[in-house]
Write a structure and sequence with these properties.
Strand order of the largest sheet: 3-2-1-4-5
Low-confidence stretches: none
EC number: 2.7.7.7
Distance between the termini: 48 Å
Pfam families: DNA_pol_A
Shape: globular
CATH class of the domain at 2-186: Alpha Beta
Oligomer: single chain
InterPro entries: DNA-dir_DNA_pol_A_palm_dom, DNA/RNA_pol_sf, DNA_polymerase_A, RNaseH-like_sf
Enzyme class: transferase
Protein name: DNA-directed DNA polymerase
Length: about 650
């Protein structure tokens, strides 16, 4: 198979990072400046399109040839730019993404970082950022360039030659990365899944621009009201200034910490010496809730056909291969709890913000409730939304052979009630509404959600969002849950022992249900029953001083984007396994539903949102496709359920 490695340098006045590549290429001034390529191990050629050099016909032919694999680092960018510039379809089945390949091996998704970690002889040119800023994005008019808003090659020929060299070097480095990664190939079925992911991203999801416009305007108007009230109250020039607010509060008898974050607010409100200081704190607290980031991101990324594209990142969470969100972050949307969503969104779309506030309270609350509803079906379509029920609880029980849990899921499925009955040694049939034992359902639910991956009292406290359980009961509930699920508890330690043995002996150790830990080439792999593997680079066994015993470490990016050793243990290893297998179940569901004509608009965690014509298919059929047995997971009881809607929402 011939490999055609490609790297582009482009221009557009649209901000690529803020708006995404699909909106980026829609700009009238979008163009490809440089087109660098190399076949296999041949020399790299750079085509300067600004100098009227043409892309050769054989390249244009090979872009459409299924027997030539096109490769790029972040291939979604190259695919989308080439498709727009040349007016052709870049079939993702003919492409491979080296960035995705790196992610599958637990490596970063940036070329420079990967080249550094792999210790390549060829390094990414560090001048790149400055050259991109000079030639590929608009420039601010200065005394030097007058009213010029864009730099062309003739404005600095020396820099332009450097840019061409940078473009060429990227192909060299990308090819070296790909050659290094070839030892650990991505399974063919995962490349097919990536191609489906690209098709879903290309397709996008339709948004309601009227609702988005009014949501932004409503939030701005409300924020202006808050700022105006704060100004009237304090006389401050800028009531949004943290320094000015802290100074005013200090002058009025209230010393505050460095920040005024929400974690400090309850204490500060209690300590407020007068009504004015209390009101200013309340205004500050309310101003912190008026973030409009989701609606702003939607507006920035909206394409000309009212669709947003490219919001899903395949293998974005590379420890589990789960998808991550991009541009419009769909993975952490607030749930909707108001009963009359249709009325609320209609009022917002009408622009009657005063009536909206009168009906539903402060705008930040109702706007957060309506974020999901900005996603709407295509004309003449409706959404079918279906998600897997308790997927992680099912997978961990299957992996651990916790048979009583599997029997619950094969039967009535009421895992919270069944868990409570087992934890408290209480008849299952008494945990029903109206019976005194129904109070036990809450701790059964919280423990089920918090304890599966070794979580203790802190995990229970975090999961007990409604504070239905006295804190002094947390430790006892953890023990009761673990006693009720002994095989899951054993799985944590078995996973840790297997992983450490694989590293120590540089061997393969079987765990359960097709899962095994394997050490190869300086990487610890967790082979999954679906046929792909999680990767833990540079694993080592080191003394864990906190527990006074040896533990497992591996390398990953820390919060400062540094490649550093991270410590893990059996509970986290099992969490990775469970989330990865749940992801693989979703992948099977996506493949099945797409094949049956249920076109995916988006998918979030364990939920698929299909955009289908009115009259086509049904909730029952789509849910049944998702819930059918999977050949690589015999005995795993899957179930999906859903609903239809005219705008996206939580049931």
């Amino acid at each position: 198979m011939t490999i055609l490695q490609i790297d582009l340098e482009t221009y557009s006045s649209v901000d690529l990072l803020k708006s995404g590549v699909y909106r980026y290429v829609e700009s009238p001034d979008f163009e490809i400046l440089l087109f660098a390529y190399a076949y296999d191990d041949e020399p790299v050629t750079v085509i300067d399109l600004t100098a009227f050099e043409d892309v050769p016909d054989f390249i244009l032919h090979d872009l459409l040839d299924p027997f030539v694999t096109k490769a790029a680092f972040n291939a979604n960018f190259e695919r989308t730019c080439i498709a727009k510039h040349f007016g052709i379809k870049c079939n993702p089945h003919m492409w491979q993404c080296t960035s995705v390949w790196a992610l599958t091996l637990g490596l970063p998704g940036s070329l420079g970082k990967v080249a550094e970690i792999l210790k390549l002889e060829d390094k990414k040119d560090t001048k790149g950022k400055g050259l991109i800023k000079y030639f590929s994005v608009p420039c601010k008019p200065t005394k030097v360039n007058g009213q010029r808003t864009r730099n062309y090659p003739h404005h600095d020929p020396e820099k332009w030659e450097e840019y061409k060299a940078y473009n060429k070097q990227d192909v060299v480095v990308e090819r070296e990365v790909r050659l290094k990664l070839e030892r650990f190939p991505v399974p063919s079925h995962e490349w097919k899944l990536w191609a489906l992911d690209q098709q879903i991203n290309d397709r996008g999801v339709r948004l309601d621009p009227v609702l988005i416009e009014h949501a932004i305007a409503c939030a701005v108007q409300y924020t202006e009201r808050l700022v105006d009230e704060a100004h009237q109250l304090t006389g401050l020039e800028n009531p949004n200034s943290l320094t000015q607010i802290k100074g005013w509060l200090s002058d009025h008898g209230l010393e505050t910490p460095d920040g005024l974050g929400k974690e400090f607010m309850p204490v500060l409100l209690n300590a407020a010496p007068c009504e004015d200081t209390k009101r200013l704190l309340e205004l500050r607290q309310e101003m912190g809730k008026t973030s409009n980031s989701k609606y702003d991101a939607m507006s920035r990324s909206l394409c000309s056909d009212d669709r947003v594209r490219g919001i899903l990142q395949y293998c974005g969470a590379n420890r589990t291969w789960r998808w991550a969100g991009r541009n419009v972050q769909m993975q952490n949307l607030p749930q909707n709890h108001i009963p009359d969503l249709d009325l609320a969104r209609s009022i917002l779309r009408s622009g009657d913000y005063e009536f909206l506030e009168m009906m539903y309270g402060a705008p930040p609350f109702v706007l957060s409730q309506l974020v999901r509803t900005a996603l709407i079906p295509s004309e003449g379509n409706r959404f079918i939304v279906s998600d897997y029920a308790a997927i992680e609880a099912r997978v961990i029980a299957w992996l651990a052979d916790e048979m009583w849990v599997l029997e619950v899921f094969k039967g009535h499925g009421k895992i919270y009630e069944a868990t409570a009955a087992r934890m408290f040694n209480t008849p299952f049939e008494t945990i029903v509404k109206g019976h005194d034992n129904y109070r036990l359902r809450a701790p059964g639910k919280v423990a089920t959600l918090a304890c599966g991956f070794g979580g203790g009292a802190a995990a229970l406290s975090k999961m007990d969002k409604n504070k239905e359980i006295p804190e002094d009961q947390y430790d006892r509930l953890v023990k009761q849950w673990r006693n009720a699920n002994p095989n899951i508890r054993k799985l944590w330690y078995a996973a840790e022992e297997a992983a450490m043995q694989a590293v120590q002996e540089k061997t393969t150790v079987k765990l359960a249900h097709g899962v095994q830990y394997r050490y190869e080439g300086g990487i610890l792999f967790a082979d999954l029953p679906s046929g792909h593997s999680l990767a833990y680079p540079q694993p080592e066994i080191k003394l864990d001083t906190k527990f006074g015993k040896d533990g497992l470490t591996f390398y990953a990016l820390d919060e400062r984007n540094n490649w550093m050793p991270q410590r893990t243990w059996g509970g986290t290893l099992v969490e990775n396994l469970v989330q990865a297998i749940a992801r693989d179940c979703l992948a099977v569901g996506l493949t099945r539903t797409e094949a049956a004509g249920y076109r995916t608009a988006i998918h979030v965690h364990d939920e698929i949102v299909a955009d289908v014509p009115i009259g086509f298919g049904s909730v029952e059929e789509m849910s049944d496709l998702m819930g059918q047995p999977i050949d690589w997971a015999p005995g795993l009881p899957l179930k999906a359920a859903g609903f239809e809607c005219d705008f996206y929402q939580k049931d």
